[in-house]
């Protein structure tokens, strides 16, 4: 077998430096270049405050679910249940409000707790039963899909959704800024502080970097991994709630597509500013790249299939850049 970092070792120091800079800043340069290109090609529709606000608003749910997913990935695991969980939570919150008649705050609290519980189950399966996280979370996600269809009988919950609940996502309660953007900023900012500026965050990064060394340093590795899954579960629940509020309904598969989008943002973010490391700020930038790409395609009237092509291409590019950065860092 050949060493993946061997090509990097054969390069001159200048070439390694250039490649390192490219791997770290290519995504940011690409984002700025894409924005500039769309602005030039569509000067009236694209570079406007209303359009940029719309992009952030549309991307806010992706940012929330991807930020939570980042925590699971930072601790060295994958959570493939987030999209399916968000769909279930969207149905659950609308059902609790419409069918069970619960107050909106109580229904939201119950669903957020359900998200934490799903994350806890994922974490326990991975850490205590020692099931690979890909298999465990994919299995849990499939179960959640079945539960979503069972709860709704396959019929979207549409009628009877109160206007107050719709305004949770569609309203502008703070200085005319869409609520989803405000909530996203609070979630992403809070998780950034947790990971980058707290003692617990140092433990999270230590577990993701080297679990064996973290365990020798006295860190409860299983507890940290479970925490990563719980945070991922809560963010998936919040995404499902906000999506149901935005759509005005609960649908069994409404958030399934967020899985691929979230992973694309996370892996694209790992190729941003750091050498193949997963981090919250990078995920935010990755989500913006996807959002502006989709927005530009929509403005130019590109067919729907092109969005899936772009998303798949971005995911492949993201993993490639992340691998390149990690290879350079280790060489």
Automatic annotation (TrEMBL):
GO MF annotation list: transmembrane transporter activity
Highest taxon listed in the record's lineage: Bacteria
Sorted UniProt keywords: Cell inner membrane, Cell membrane, Membrane, Transmembrane, Transmembrane helix, Transport
UniProt key word Membrane: yes
Membrane topology annotation: Multi-pass membrane protein
Subcellular localization: Cell membrane
Pfam families: BPD_transp_2
InterPro entries on file: ABC_transp_permease
Chain segments annotated as transmembrane: 21-43, 55-75, 82-100, 106-127, 134-153, 173-195, 226-245, 257-273, 280-302, 308-329
One Gene Ontology CC term in the entry: plasma membrane
Keyword Transmembrane: yes
Entries under CDD domains matching the protein: TM_PBP1_transp_AraH_like (cd06579)
Summary of the function given for this chain in its UniProt record: Part of the ABC transporter complex LsrABCD involved in autoinducer 2 (AI-2) import. Probably responsible for the translocation of the substrate across the membrane.
Assembly: The complex is composed of two ATP-binding proteins (LsrA), two transmembrane proteins (LsrC and LsrD) and a solute-binding protein (LsrB).
Name of the protein this chain belongs to: Autoinducer 2 import system permease protein LsrD
